Amino acid sequence: MNxxxxxxxxxxxxxxxGHAHSGGAEPAVTAGHIKDAATLETFCRGRLxxxxxxxxxxxxxAAAGLDPLVLDDAADARTPVxxxxxxxxxxxxxxxxxxxxxxxxxxLDALAAARPRGAHQPVVLGLAARSAGLTPLDAAYAxxxxxxxxxxxxxxxxxxxxxxxxxxxxxxxxxxxxxxAEQGAEAARRAGTEGPDALPAASAPLLDIAAQxxxxxPVRLFAS
Length: 224
Description:
- There is one protein chain.
- This protein has about 220 residues and is an all-alpha fold.
- It is about 70% helix and about 0% strand.
- It has 11 helices and no strands.
- The chain has helices spanning about 5-10, 25-30, 35-65, 70-75, 80-100, 105-115, 120-130, 135-160, 165-170, 175-195, 205-215.
- It is globular and about 45 Å long.
- The N and C termini lie far apart (about 35 Å).
């Protein structure tokens, strides 16, 4: 295992396309739900324990060696909104390109061939972690962190928020990140014997509704 690979995978400069997405922050800012550091923290915490937890379980399961095609179907079932399914697959396709260039391996090649239009991003990230020699818990940490770092970075641009304040929000969420990553890894362990129904299926209806509406905006700063 090369733990330093986790730093590469979780780096915001890893060319997986996440910089173009706000993780729901753009519609939340427009609706007035995010207006300062305190409301950004509330938004990120809610996102982390819903969408982030689901993603952490999927990524950990892929890193543990569960069938990525079964996991991709499980991700579809946990993503009821068409706009978010499209975004997840678009990001998965970009993540696949970056992962195959960085940590090439037969499992990534097989998934790319089976899902040429892209698998869900957490599944691809988990498989990338596996190819890099990382653990399921590592994969859960990477995807959980991404679920809050994306909105925090987007809020800096959307609100002209002080970057120091945005980073402080992420620092205050570290305990929640530990909890979500551990829950995702534990769910992946259970899914190995109980099947994909053991994976988290937390929902965030307001995120879903906002994402579908945001997809129809004629002008927007972020793709999602």
